[in-house]
Amino acid sequence: MSDTVSPEQKTQTNTTTYLLGHLRDYGLLFALIAIMLFFQVVTDGVLLKPVNITNLFLQNSYIIIMALGMLIVIVGGHIDLSVGSVMGFVGAFAAVMIVNLDVPVAITIPVCLVVGGLIGAAQGYWVAYWNIPSFIVTLAGMLVFRGLSLWLLEGQSVGPFPKSFQLLSTGFVPDIFGVDRPNVTALAVGVIAACAIVYLGMRKRARNMAYGIEDEPFSFFVVRNAIVAGALLFVIYKLSTFRGLPNVLVTMGLLTIVYAFVTEQTTIGRRVYALGGNVKAAKLSGIPTERLTFLTFVNMGVLAALAGLIFAARLNTATPKAGFAVELDVIAAVFIGGASMSGGVGKIVGAVIGAFIMGVMNNGMSIMGIGIDYQQVIKGLVLLAAVIFDVYNKQKQR
Amino acid sequence: MQTLLEMRDITKTFPGVKALDNVNLKVKEGEIHALVGENGAGKSTLMKVLSGVYPQGTYDGEIHYDGQVARFNGISDSENLGIIIIHQELALVPLLSIAENLFIGNECASKGVMNWPETYRRTEALLKKVGLREQPATPVDSLGVGKQQLVEIAKALSKDVRLLILDEPTAALSESDSQALLDLLLELKAEGVTSIIISHKLNEVRRVADTITVIRDGSTVSTLDAATEEITEDRIVRDMVGRDMSQRYPERERRAGDMLMEVENWNVWHPEHATRQMIKDINFHVRAGEVVGIAGLMGAGRTELAMSIFGRSYGQNTTGTVKLKGQPIDTSTVAAAIRSGLAYVTEDRKELGLVLEDTIQRNITLANLRDVSRSGVINEAEETKVAERYRKAMNIRTPSVFQKVMNLSGGNQQKVVLSKWLFAGPEVLILDEPTRGIDVGAKFEIYGIINELSAQGKGVVMISSEMPELLGMSDRIYVMNEGRFVGELDASDASQERIMSFIVTH
Predict the structure, then answer these.
(1) Per-residue confidence band for B89, with pLDDT thresholds at 50, 70 and 90
(2) How far apart are CA B359 and CA B364, in angstroms?
(3) Three-state SS at B495
(4) Which residue of B has its CA nearest to A214?
(5) What percentage of chain B has pLDDT greater than the value 70?
(6) What string of DSSP letters covers B228-295?
(7) Who has greater pLDDT, B242 or A46?
């Protein structure tokens, strides 16, 4: 996804004013790259080793998947504090079904997703139709589902899972062209994806030019796409020299594309932004605001369930502590990605990059052997800095 | 009379724009000085310079106050000299009492401990002075806007005001509340308080002002002295817009076509108090090409009527039928009402009409995304085309349709709201205070748009508190009072007096 930059306002092509106006969009991307380079240097190249890149995706997949749903909830003007607990609960639910009750994996997975949806519905109902603040409803949910996971697991860890379930997280896409490294399938996917990004970017640019609304200087366009496509190819190449494409990366990539498309290109996405921007105006424009709010929570529940399955599959066990405080990482990722607390503003791609920033920092600091105490402090400061940067930018524009 | 305030050659630039360009303002001690001009002319900026919101050094020019050069670094500096500004958006804390609001930041307290008896005693004295009969302990949010305005003035008086600045004080007030407020200003004047009043309502300006300064595009255009010359509204308007506006309401060929919308036996109850009937057995109709006005005082139930018709957005237990071209239509939800051919332009465009964070384009298509999408996927190119079409047709002044709506002036925002509803393709438009808070030039354009709609055979229902506007624009006027229609007048024999007499005799 290259479209972190949307053409806005000014028609003149002055590079400096353009850069200033889009500092946020470029800033996020460059912040991620800068952070990666920094850790690459201070960890003596460990960060970008194929095995570590693979690890990065495995470690952060569940955060990213939940960030997709959380972005929509936050854009809609709400928040969901329960996702960590729901994730843990669904993992526990899956463990009980598969390990204790011997239910087949193929049945367990859809059932768990439905359970996630029902949990989202149960919370969304009070938020949407009773106007109870989401902070309170989901705070209650957070406690309830934390307790229910403990009850379900009777305080024990339950595992291990059968191989087929583990594939959800630790599996890799088989190389259809052979077994030798580098993994040709991965490379092919990478090249196709990079071409698609450049092609879609060019098509959008051409269309905007036709309307005379494109203001990104051509040089910026080239550099931005070169960096994005280059980074993608680099990462994929590294992966291909290890074990190829992890299944979770594919899941995550597809979900990101789908959610970016839904939020930016469809009527339902547009309506969520309007709802978060001004719920009264949206309502008087004929938008079913209650139902839409309800659905954002259902969606969040399903994604939290998926994250719970992936997390459990990765650990190969369901523990009562799974998902503890994860909601905070997810929410932080969305705000680092540029969403606004008051709703109506934020992008899927931003949330994903925000999640990666958090993930790379976690990973890099762990490699460096920085204690968990300092890690928390640094992550907190990064979140604060990102939001201050947003507010500062906004004030300057006035 | 000696000069209390003189602002000399004030120039204030924001990045890229010159908001004020050598503005001069001279206010005499003990007078009421009106500051008029179109939206964006620079009135509010000038007052922000005066009150210290823009501190000394961020502008050029000098302020002389009470014979001395004044240098303000913040609002507290100007307040210490008795310059108090009351903004259009009132600065009261809704859940606190009148007494608490009056002395916020200025509490009667010793060492941080409140002296309540003293607070109440002084509050009562101040309330008496502004003629507000309320208990000091009453929470502010239980008062109407008019009374809240009086609380603001009482608050100013508590600070020993010498120069009172009121920004659009009557914009949200009913006719009678406005009159009361203006009377109060005259009383304060008799007691020696000087006021500056910013207003769009020229009849009010004419009534109370001793001197009128007109500002246009950041410069002083003229200063009119009511004592030495006869000031007509036309004269003020001419200075405001820089051209002759002999016609305040554009001509329209009046012709009522076939029956378009009929509302029959409409009854609505209060959304929270099920026993309180807000709309009582209302019947009315609109013909094709007709502009129907609804007159009435604030609280008569006009907005409630409109919103209850538009998708039951107000009230409960609503009964009655709405017919379009003789057929009953479904108005049970907003979406259904839109589909059936209704549109409602709200009175409060920022709160209820627009998504301010979003672009012009996204606001215009919001009520009719279906026409710019296929199976739920939006065609942005098509959407831009639509937005551009309305930008031209409505003369929305903006560099591009990708501009955020919050950066537009009031008049242009209103045009975006109208565009949104026109794109929804309605048969009947209900316009609730369509020109509130927008300047004369933009008003004229909105009237033109209304006439254009009527020429296309649409039905227009216009709710307005400005009677000249109703009289100038409508073919027929219904008079509403306390939830009922108490009269119906043809435009040819309607007058302000007749409308008022309907209201007072029912």
Answers:
(1) confident
(2) 9
(3) coil
(4) B402
(5) 97
(6) TS---HHHHHHHHHTS----SS--------SEEEEEEEEEEE-SS-TT-EEEEEEEEEEETT-EEEEE
(7) A46
- Render pLDDT for A64-103 as a digit per residue (tens, 0 to 9): 999 999 999 999 999 999 999 999 999 999 999 999 999 9
Cα–Cα distance between A328 and A85 in angstroms, integer? 11
Rg (CA), chain B: 24
Range of weakest confidence among A83-87, B299-303, B355-359 = B299-303
In B87-190, DSSP assigns E strands to: 109-110, 113-114, 163-167
Nearest to A197 by CA among A229, A165, A222: A229
Partners of B351 on chain A (C-beta within 8 Å) are 278, 280-281
Residue with tokens 């303002």: B25
Average pLDDT of the residues in A118-141: 96
Q: What is the ipTM of this complex?
A: 0.83
Virtual CA dihedral for B486, B488, B492, B498, nearest 10 degrees? -10
**Residue B494 vs residues A48, B377, B502: alpha-carbon distances, Å:** 81, 50, 11
B169 pLDDT higher than 80: yes
Nearest to A9 among B351, B373, B399 (CB): B399
Cis preceding-peptide flag for A104 (omega within 30 of 0)? no
Inter-CA distances, B208 with A6, B146, B181, B226, B467, Å: 51, 18, 11, 10, 19
Distance from the A281 Cα atom to the nearest Cα atom in chain B, whole angstroms: 4
Instruction: Tell me, yes or no, if B221 comes closer than 8 A to chain A by beta carbon.
Output: no
Contact A286 B384 (CB under 8 A): no
A234: alpha, beta or left, given left = phi > 0 and alpha = psi -120 to 50? alpha
Do B342 and B427 meet the contact criterion of CB atoms below 8 Å apart? yes
Give the pair of three-digit tokens for residue B214: 């007109």
B42 pLDDT higher than 70: yes
Residue A277 and residue B344: Cβ atoms within 8 Å? no
Q: Is the pLDDT of residue B17 over 70?
A: no
B319 beta partners: B267
Structure tokens at A33: 């790259």
Burial class (CB in 10 A: 0-12, 13-18, 19+), A254: exposed
Contact B55, B232 (CB under 8 A): no
**CA angle B282-B283-B287, nearest 5°?**
140
> Is the peptide bond preceding residue A217 cis, with omega within 30 degrees of 0?
no
Interface test with B, best of A208, A285, A394, A396 (most B CBs within 10 A): A285
CA distance linking residue A290 with residue A125, whole number of Å: 9
> What's the whole-number average pLDDT of chain B?
87
pLDDT (0 to 100) of residue B227 = 81
Per the CB < 8 A criterion, the answer to whether A85 and A311 are in contact is: no
CA distance B337 to A331: 38
- The answer to whether residues B430 and B343 touch, using CB atoms and an 8 Å cutoff, is yes
Q: What is the pLDDT of residue B210?
A: 92
Which burial class, exposed, middle or buried, applies to B492 when counting CB atoms under 10 A from its CB (0-12, 13-18, 19+)? exposed
pTM (2 d.p.): 0.80
Angle between helices A50-75 and A218-240 (to 10 degrees): 130
pLDDT for residue A11 is more than 60: no
> For B191-225, how does the pLDDT look when each residue is reduced to its tens digit (9 = 90+)?
889 999 998 788 888 889 999 998 887 888 888 88
Mean pLDDT is lowest, of A33-47, B14-28, B153-167, B323-337, for: B14-28
- From CA B260, how far away is CA B458, in angstroms rounded? 8
Cα–Cα distance between A89 and A308 in angstroms, integer?
8
3-state secondary structure of A256: helix
Residue A176 to residue A178: CA distance in whole angstroms:
6
Which of B344, B366, B461, B350 has the alpha carbon at shortest distance from B412?
A: B350
